[in-house]
Amino acid sequence: MADSGEEHFVTPVIEDHQTTCWGCGLRLLLPTYAPVFKCGWCGAITNQNVNKPETKCLRWRRLRDRCFVCTLFMFMLFVICGGVWAVYPVVFSVSYTCGVLHSILTMTLAATTISTFSLAAFQCAGTPPIILWGSYPVVGKGGLENYTFCHYCSKPKSPRAHHCRSCGTCILDMDHHCPFIGNCVGAANHRHFIAFLFSAVVSTIYVSVMSAYAGLHIWPPLKYRSPGHLNGFSSGLALRALKEVVLALLSSAVQLSARGLVLVYLFVSSVSVQIGLSVLLWQQLCYIYEGKTYLSHLSSRGSDPVEEKDCQNIFRFFGWPYSILRYLPSERNSRKRHKK
């Protein structure tokens, strides 16, 4: 009975605790069942609880992105062609020099916006580098440090990469997936995306200014009622004056021609798009200043920031040479300089 009791406490190694590293192929013996573990040789991280989700919606996502791209491209063409048609006679009626200058600016902004949009939309967002994996002789010590296995692509995924379910591939330094360009924003096209936002903001500002300028020239004269009843001071004086202006604008808007209606639409749409793109551009520049992407910002919430906020991050992002960066002030140097 005593021998049987002692044998009862013998715990053999369970076979389920032996697993194989996907990175180097070495068999690992874990003390307990660990769903997530890191290989001590190659540094690869294995997650045994990850289940490959279904990818049935991939085709519909791509169709959605193509619809967004076509809609945005048609909108840009309408703004360019409609703006030229509506503003052209008004500007040339002022002076020939103003008309030529307006034509040059319009062609420059249109070409810049369409070219940067095409580069951001149709260029690969960033393919992770190809790395050897799978067997011990091939993978060296720390060769796959902090790499994980992408169950979508069935290949290693670096810590800087993220799998996009809409594109169906891993993207290096992925910021986000933008349906309006039908592409991810990553390491290869992030600069083009920022250039497109900047060009689009400048273009919408110019469209709103020129449409307002042309609209004032062709707008029918406003017809107010006799202002005699507005004499004196009362609590509702400002409200009644505003009501008179609105009624005069509505009554004159009925007499607008097709050119005037196009100008009104261009002004409203350009101001709306300008506000949205300005907010997006400012958000992107803030992330670049912090040395982050949108996804890394989401993953670092609630943790201590490791990246340094520095103006050099912006210049380094746009590819400025080191000879210029060394003369720029950095937050680290300023802290050391003022520290006593």
UniProtKB/TrEMBL annotation:
First-listed, main subcellular location of the protein, grouped into a coarse class: membrane
Highest rank taxon of the organism: Eukaryota
Any GO MF annotation of the entry: protein-cysteine S-palmitoyltransferase activity
Presence of the UniProt keyword Transferase in the record: yes
Coiled-coil zones: none
Entry similarity comment: Belongs to the DHHC palmitoyltransferase family.
Name this polypeptide is given: S-acyltransferase
Gene behind the chain: LOC18610072
